[in-house]
């Protein structure tokens, strides 16, 4: 029997607490229906017997308190909401408990922006992690020693797991079901819950918001110039000259401030504009390509797929409702 502990954090997202409980309890039912024993002992674990969430709209009752859990095999850290730094402070009692059980052999999985709580334990330092794409800049600012993997649905390293944004955590849940049971059981669960079991990226959902929470005013001006002139062919040398810096110095400062190289930033701004056009207009691929400053169809297609995970045609067909 595997002990699964789902934490109940203050400011936790109720779905991210209920869904893993529902899934692993359902897997027990699938196993028993197949004549096999139930595998998971699923518990909601909290600091107190009852935790109120979403401004007291919901309350979740714990099956066990932190001090009641002597050992566990898998810990889930659900997504949190509201002000992240305040949420971490409110849930500070969870952090040493997570570290202690990890050192005793438990695996730990964060769901969506539960990654902020996981990173606060220090267990992610020097490791890879995923979180909601919209929280990437804030995560990098708060946890510079963690390698955030943009667009990833799942990361796994040394018994520590993380998932991408929002419903992406279902892919991590199914991944862990497959790990602890088998592929057939995971596929059955994916069909029951109508989840695409093998989705690997949240890239197509991502909206690029350039990192501007920095104090390099010249680089900020360069970012604004790129965003205002994405239709043009912009080069690194042109930008360096415009802002009166040597190329190497400009590239170094730009990367430090934005977490992107200059070329990456230009590409992402152009592709973000192309995505908006595909979503809202009837323009064909070539028209959109020229609008955002590309003249090489192959290059445009390759960059678009690298950033979004989809070809231009696939993206337009998926998101255009015209």
Features:
46% helix; two-stranded antiparallel ribbon; 322 residues; 2 domains; alpha/beta; single chain; Arc Repressor Mutant, subunit A; seven-stranded mixed sheet; Rossmann fold
How does this structure look, described?
By secondary structure, the protein is an alpha/beta fold. The protein has two domains: 2-205, Rossmann fold (3-Layer(aba) Sandwich), CATH 3.40.50.880; 217-319, Arc Repressor Mutant, subunit A, CATH 1.10.10.60. The protein is 46% helix and 13% strand. It contains 14 helices and eleven strands. It has helices spanning 14-33, 84-90, 94-103, 115-120, 136-142, 169-180, 183-192, 217-228, 236-242, 247-258, 262-280, 285-291, 297-308, 312-319, and strands at residues 2-7, 40-46, 50-53, 58-61, 64-65, 74-77, 107-110, 128-129, 147-148, 154-157, 160-163. The strands form three sheets. It has a seven-stranded mixed β-sheet with strand order 5-2-1-6-7-11-10, with helices on both faces. Helix 1 (14-33) packs across helix 7 (183-192). The longest helix is centred in the first third of the chain and has 20 residues, at 14-33. It is globular, with a radius of gyration of 22 Å.
């Amino acid at each position: 029997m595997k002990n699964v502990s789902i934490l109940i954090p203050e400011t936790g997202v109720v779905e991210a607490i209920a869904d893993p409980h529902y899934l692993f309890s359902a897997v027990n039912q699938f196993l028993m229906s197949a004549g096999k024993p139930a595998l998971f002992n699923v518990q909601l674990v909290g600091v107190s017997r009852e935790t109120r969430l979403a401004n007291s709209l919901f309350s979740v009752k714990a099956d066990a308190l932190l001090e009641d859990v002597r050992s566990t095999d898998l810990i889930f850290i659900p997504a949190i909401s509201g002000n992240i730094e305040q949420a971490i402070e409110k849930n500070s009692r969870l952090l040493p408990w997570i570290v202690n059980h990890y050192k005793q052999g438990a695996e730990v999985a964060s769901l969506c922006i539960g990654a902020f709580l996981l990173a606060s334990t220090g267990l992610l330092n020097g490791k890879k992690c995923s979180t909601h794409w919209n929280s990437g800049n804030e995560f990098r600012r708060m946890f510079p020693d963690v390698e955030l993997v943009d667009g990833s649905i799942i990361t796994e390293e040394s018994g520590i797991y993380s998932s991408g944004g929002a419903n992406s955590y279902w892919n991590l849940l199914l991944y862990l079901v497959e790990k602890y049971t088998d592929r057939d059981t995971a596929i059955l669960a994916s069909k029951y819950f109508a989840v695409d079991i093998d989705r690997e990226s949240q890239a197509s959902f991502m909206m690029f918001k350039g990192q501007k929470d920095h104090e390099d005013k010249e680089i900020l001006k360069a970012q604004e110039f790129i965003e205002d002139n994405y239709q043009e062919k912009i080069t690194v040398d042109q930008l360096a000259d415009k802002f009166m810096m040597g190329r190497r110095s400009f590239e170094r400062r730009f990367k430090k401030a934005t977490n992107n190289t200059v070329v990456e930033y230009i590409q992402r701004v152009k592709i973000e504009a192309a995505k908006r056009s595909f979503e809202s207009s009837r323009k064909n691929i070539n028209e959109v390509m020229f609008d955002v400053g590309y003249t090489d169809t192959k290059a445009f297609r390759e960059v678009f797929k690298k950033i979004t995970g989809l070809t231009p045609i696939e993206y337009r067909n998926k998101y255009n409702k015209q």
